[in-house]
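=== RUN LOG ===
request id: a7f3
mode: sequence -> structure
chains: 1
length: 147
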Amino acid sequence: MNDDFDSGLLEEELRQAAAVLDPLPPALLQVAVDAYALYDLDARVAELTFDSLVDAIPVRGATDVPRMLTFTAGEVTLDVEVTAEGLMGQVLPPRPARVEVLGGPQTTVPLTTDDLGRFTTTTAPTGPFALRLHTGADVVVTEWLRA
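=== RESULT ===
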């Protein structure tokens, strides 16, 4: 390598060329900004412990099978069923909680669990989504998944 070569200058020139020749779509930039804004430093991340797409045995002839997900964060378990009609889930052990379905730039409507820790929404996620669970002082966030 030549000692006079400045890789920082080359990198900056390549960035400028990419910005002119292949600019970032404004909608994609807004999704990235919104996703970063959803980042919660105080939240515990729930580990995906079961995903029916990976862990379940397929049933022959079954179509439109709901996707079953289980997340665990400490003593909190979140079971979720994803269908074309929406989401249905349960927080275990049952407790009052507020659940938000995160999905990019669209606004989320908080869901409230019932006495058995159950919640439902009739809006199915259309792209990557995550769940944020507020149980008192605790905040639990799932990893992002594609519906």
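=== NOTES ===
Helices lie at 7-21, 26-37, 52-55.
The CA atoms of residues 64 and 100 lie 25 Å apart.
=== END ===
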